[in-house]
Write a structure and sequence with these properties.
By secondary structure, the chain is of the alpha+beta class. The chain is built from 7 helices and 21 strands. A hairpin with a 5-residue loop joins strand 15 and strand 16. The longest helix has 18 residues.
Amino acid sequence: MSQVRFSVNEAEASILAYIDEEIFELPALWLRERCQDDIHLDQVTQQRLFDPHQLEDEISLLTVEKQNDMQYQLTFSDGYSGYYDFTEFFADFDPYDGAPTPTPWMSDTDKQDFYVDYNGLSSDKGMLKALETFLTKGVLIVTNVPNKPDAVLDVASQFGQVRETNFGKYFEVYTRPNSNDLAYRSVPLGPHTDNPYRDPMPGIQLLHCIANETSGGLSTLVDSLSVLNQLKAENPEGYKLLSEIPVRYRHVDNDVELIERRTMIESDNTGRVTGIAYSPRLDYLPLLPNDQLVIFHRARKRLGQLLSSPDYEWRFKLEPGQLQMFHNTRVLHGRTGFDASEGLRHLQGAYIDLDAPKGRYKAIKRQKRITD
């Protein structure tokens, strides 16, 4: 979260915000829109009871009078005067909007905190711990999940709303010939993002292990944030191209063909890198001048090498009754190959959107503040 403090000059009716290393004067129009009284703002929903789009554009701040610590009365040229609690402004300057800051991890990071017990999810304390782990690390391993069909939907519904796709509300991952995706074979799967051909991509994937009787078929996870830090340090020019040039992804099934173009390195609306769209089985090189194409390809190749490096990739056996939940574009997943004749390897998967865990986390935190 950004470090924020305010400086108020009552004589000049000006307010400065010191945000990390930058200084901003808060404009009168910006302040006027954020009036906090219950005539203009519903205190339950925090939705406005007026249309700020119709405010005067040349509005000015006339007076600033301190009431007590962080609380001021502001008067404006349009005749409005109201009380403001400046602590309410902190949220405007929080790039993570109340969620904990993501923390990159590598293969040698202690994974003990990645695990939570299914039974603990029923309490606010247990759910808050699980949500904080997921939002910081991008992954969560839930243990002691009931080893029954459809349990993945139960866990998914505790964190968000299940997102149905052409694969259904949930999908079965076990070996079957002539399947519509290589995930349903026994071949190894390198680290990848699910469904980069879809708009929007699934934000979160859950995979619940029903049975795992093979010696192979190890699950793999890798944090792309750590990998991208290394790639940017090694090849800033290639990193830039992967961030700016869209790539075409395609999925073909009997009754649907899905195509989407997006950059391999994904960023949010603030420009902060959030992960990657990466699937060598599904992407196509963009058409670029040859010198740029070579730079693009070298960066793409190095990205793949880093994603599979033992320095970054975590390999483990997902046991029956365990469920892995991961940020689909941040934490890439895969598996080693296995011999299907050794026994059954059966997982059930589902998707939920990324905003749900963040919203649940903030709601529980807010309720705890109210009740504490």
